[in-house]
Design brief:
single chain, 11 helices, two-stranded antiparallel sheet, mainly alpha
Length: about 210
C-alpha cells in the first residue's frame, strides 16, 4: 500500500467514537467489544518474527487495553485510530530491542509508523500515551486527551483488575474472557525477574511517578 493510501485509511479509521463499549456488559461475546482492528493486525504481522511465541499474548493485551480505554473514557469522544496506534506500539520495544527499558524504543516505532503515513501531527499525543502508560499517579495531560484513559486502561489490565478505576468487575472480567492472557502476564513476571537480576538498582525502568 502506498503512503497516500495508508494516510487515507488511517484518517478514515480515525473516526471519533463515543462510548462504544457498554460498561455493564455481562458476557465476553458482547457486540459492543471491538474485536478486529486492521492497524493492530497489520503491525503485529509485520513484527511476528520478533514477537515469536509472545505474539498472541501481546495481541490479546492490546485488544484488552483498547476496549478498557474506551470504557474508561466513557462519554468522552475517542479517536479510535490514535488509540489503536498507541496500543499496538506501547510495549513493542520490549521485543524489537530486547530490553525491559522499552519506552523509548516503543515511542520510536510509533513515531516512524506515523511519519511514514503522513500522520506526524499525531505524534505528541501518542508519544505522551506511551511514555505515561506506566505512570503510577494520574497524568496531567489535557483533559480531553487519551493519555489518562490509556494509562488507566493499561493499569487495569496489568493488575488483572485489581485496579479498576470505577469500571464494573463484570465488564473487566468479560474483556479478559474475550482475550485470554495466553501467557502474557507470566512473560511480564519473567522479564521483571530477569531485569531485577541484571539491574537491581533499576528493576522497573518503565515505571514513573
Amino acid at each position: 500500500m502506498i503512503e497516500s493510501d495508508w494516510k487515507s485509511d488511517a484518517r478514515t479509521s480515525s473516526r471519533v467514537v463515543s462510548n462504544p463499549v457498554r460498561p455493564m456488559v455481562q458476557c465476553a461475546n458482547d457486540p459492543g467489544l471491538l474485536t478486529h482492528l486492521p492497524t493492530v493486525e497489520r503491525v503485529l504481522n509485520e513484527h511476528a518474527s520478533v514477537l515469536g511465541h509472545d505474539r498472541i499474548g501481546y495481541r490479546n493485551h492490546v485488544y484488552r487495553v483498547v476496549n478498557l480505554c474506551l470504557a474508561v473514557a466513557g462519554d468522552n469522544p475517542v479517536e479510535l485510530e490514535k488509540l489503536t496506534v498507541a496500543a499496538v506500539f506501547h510495549d513493542l520495544g520490549n521485543w524489537t530491542n530486547h530490553t525491559f527499558d522499552y519506552i523509548a524504543p516503543s515511542v520510536a516505532l510509533a513515531r516512524n509508523h506515523l511519519t511514514a503515513r503522513g500522520l506526524a501531527d499525531w505524534i505528541p499525543e501518542i508519544e505522551a500515551m506511551i511514555v505515561n502508560h506506566h505512570k503510577v499517579t494520574s497524568s496531567r495531560a489535557v483533559q480531553r486527551s487519551l493519555v489518562e484513559s490509556f494509562r488507566r486502561a493499561d493499569w487495569i489490565d496489568v493488575s488483572r483488575g485489581l485496579r479498576r478505576f470505577g469500571l464494573p468487575r463484570t465488564f473487566v472480567a468479560a474483556v479478559i474472557a474475550a482475550w485470554p492472557d495466553a501467557g502474557f502476564h507470566r512473560r511480564l513476571v519473567a522479564l521483571t525477574l530477569d531485569r531485577w537480576w541484571k539491574h537491581p538498582l533499576s528493576p522497573l525502568p518503565m515505571v514513573k511517578w
